[in-house]
Amino acid sequence: MRALDIMTTPVVTTTPDTTIHEAAKLLADHRISGMPVLDAAGNVVGIISEGDLLHRVETGTDAGRRSWWLDFVAGTRELAARYVKEHGHKVGDVMSENVISIHESTPLKEIADLLERHRIKRVPVLREDRLVGIVSRSNLIRALAALSQPDTDADSYDDAALRDAIVAALAGYRWALPKGSVFVKDGIVHLWGVIESEQEGRAICVAAERVSGVKGVESHLAFPVVIPAM
């Protein structure tokens, strides 16, 4: 799947000259947490989100005057930037200008990695440098929810084939079990072996559960026995 398949369109947008009050009303009326900011030519020049409006003098949520030593450590540049963020009248004063965008053909994996790496919640989607949609974390969650569940009642695999499929699913991982530690009977997977951590055990079980045709997984995995020194 690509950005084109899950993006929200049409996109609610605003401009740098829009007032903070009008921008807040747009977010509230459309029940969204952020939106792109477009200039007169239709170019994306920023993003404004709930986070940009979290601390405002109008609601009494601004930082106000802090202790002198905190202001001293912060420096004048940071103090001035915070003042603009809390008192600015227009979207252009408070929006985030470093916009990270994606192309409509960007795969979902790249989008998820991008959101996580930059700790952002949404990215504008462009086609030939023009805004055509927006993908947020909620779009990725909805895509996951829309995927059909595997048919665990399917009998297209026999036990031997299921065992081979599980071993193949584990292949390449350092925590994988050898084939001799995987047994399948009537679609139920039995896992035997020694593991180093609970996380390894859970990963092995998840890999087995994801194989189409598996009806259940029973873990008999154990931790190594530590014999205390005499």
Explain how this protein is built.
It is an enzyme of class 1 (oxidoreductase). Its EC number is 1.1.1.205. The protein is of the alpha/beta class and 230 residues long. It folds into two domains: 144 residues, Roll (CBS-domain), CATH 3.10.580.10; 64 residues, Fe-S cluster assembly (FSCA) (GMP Synthetase, Chain A, domain 3, 2-Layer Sandwich), CATH 3.30.300.130. The strands form three sheets. It has a three-stranded mixed beta sheet with strand order 3-4-5. Strands 6-7-8 form a three-stranded mixed beta sheet.
Question: Uncertain regions: pLDDT < 50 for 5+ in a row?
Answer: none
As a whole number of angstroms, the C-alpha radius of gyration is: 26 Å
Count helical runs.
9
Q: CATH-wise, what's the superfamily of the largest domain?
A: CBS-domain
Give the number of domains.
Answer: 2
Would you report the number of β strands?
8
Helical residue percent?
Answer: 25-40%
- In round numbers, the mean pLDDT is 85
CATH topology of the largest domain: CBS-domain
CATH architecture label name of the largest domain? Roll
What is the string of helix and strand elements?
HHEEHHHEHEEHHEEHE
Pfam families: BON, CBS
EC number: 1.1.1.205
InterPro entries: BON_dom, CBS_dom, CBS_dom_sf, Diverse_CBS-Domain, UCP036990_CBS_BON
Protein name: Inosine-5'-monophosphate dehydrogenase
Report a brief summary of the structure.
The protein has 230 residues and is an alpha/beta fold.
Annotate the secondary structure layout.
Layout: H1 3-6, H2 20-30, E1 34-38, E2 44-49, H3 68-74, H4 76-87, H5 91-94, E3 102-103, H6 108-118, E4 122-127, E5 130-136, H7 137-146, H8 159-170, E6 182-185, E7 188-194, H9 198-209, E8 216-222
Parallel strand pairs: 3-4, 7-8
Antiparallel strand pairs: 1-2, 4-5, 6-7
